């Protein structure tokens, strides 16, 4: 049994009131279409096609949102969900069944999708629809069950009679279809009179006529929560956020205040790590074991080693080694690499630099494009003057050097092993190992 996936993401998403296409809006750090791909992948569906509009197909944002092995099909005119599915036909021939999903129902879990696919293949159904019981069905299609309990059809809200309007059994728009049956069924769907769109859910009726339709109904109310506007976007995000937080806590991570802790999807965190209130741990981040994250920290696409402390800092695209310390209001960015046991203190900014093992930059300094060796002490207010108005230049500080407070290191420049600079010196030329320099411009004072 092989299953392919088709994600319908070519709709206009008018209710978002946005220049950004709805599938590219994000929750918990990932686009809606990205979440949908992720759910399918976790359900074991490898081959995935995403149907998008011509505009979206040409946008670089779509490329960024999709793994490279996901195929893109184009729906040139938004003629409805059935037409959208047909746009991906040529890419999925040869599979036994096809899972179809919208790009805006991202609280469906991979387990539920798996269940749907299994039930589909075991029952011999042509069309299996994932339904959900919800509190508020407004705007959603209702699943009509006939007298003998089989799934008769799906009725869009604007077509519902009063009985169906009152029904809380809705169509999530996740389906599983038999590949050798569905395409001719799709071809026979007539456009809806009111909207002129061809509605994909209509195929359920054709399957029912031959006794091959069924619904899998999720008992989880969240399954039916979609994203059509920004209020729903926020509601979905808050459910997802809670699921993510619960998972980390179950895995041994302490969250001081889960309500104010924002952890993106797929972040990895080791056990015995604690995260204080108001922290944001963003996509692409890996945090080790026994790490202490202080209040109001924000970490993006970074790696934090075991036993490190990051206390109220901003860490972007950087690495913090095991046992290292990063203090309040420090900013690490652009590939900062803070080695094991090093210390970056209050208000320091480190960009594209290595801070070697055991070295310290304790107070308000700027270190950019620098390679700092081991056990170096950088005094308060030190600046690597790395930019001359045109180009960036490197600074090298070798092991055991002592940089006096408020030293200006005018790059390119190198401070040799165990050399020292006096407070307030402006260093324009290389300092040899073991030398001590001071003044403006700095000169050797050792002799
Ligand atoms: C759809 C279902 C409805 C279900 C609901 C659940 C139809 C007709 N109705 O309604 O029964 O309860 O989803 O979320 O399918 N799309 C295209 N091309 C188009 C139109 C839509 O790719 O021409 C895509 C959209 O980008 C979206 C998905 O299909 O990802 C669903 O479209 P949307 O307009 O959100 O449908 P709903 O009105 O929510
Ligand atoms: Ca929708």
Summarize it.
By secondary structure, this protein is an alpha/beta fold. It has ten helices and 42 strands. The longest helix is centred in the middle third of the chain and has 21 residues, at 230-250.
Q: What gyration radius follows from the Cα positions, in whole Å?
A: 29 Å
Give the mean pLDDT.
Answer: 97
Shape: elongated
Biggest sheet strand order reads 12-15-18-21-24-27-30-33-36-39-41-42
Distance from N terminus to C terminus (CA atoms, Å) equals: 82 Å
* Beta-strand share of residues: 25-35%
| Strands, total number | 42
Q: How many individual helices?
A: 10
Poorly predicted regions are none
CATH fold name of the largest domain: Spore Coat Polysaccharide Biosynthesis Protein SpsA, Chain A
Structure commentary:
The protein has 447 residues and is of the alpha/beta class. The protein folds into 2 domains: 3-224, Spore Coat Polysaccharide Biosynthesis Protein SpsA, Chain A (Alpha-Beta Complex), CATH 3.90.550.10; 230-444, Hexapeptide repeat proteins (UDP N-Acetylglucosamine Acyltransferase, domain 1, 3 Solenoid), CATH 2.160.10.10. The protein contains 10 helices and 42 strands. The radius of gyration is 29 Å and the shape is elongated. 47% of the residues are buried. The structure holds uridine-diphosphate-N-acetylglucosamine and calcium ion. Calcium ion binds at residues 102, 104, 226, 228.
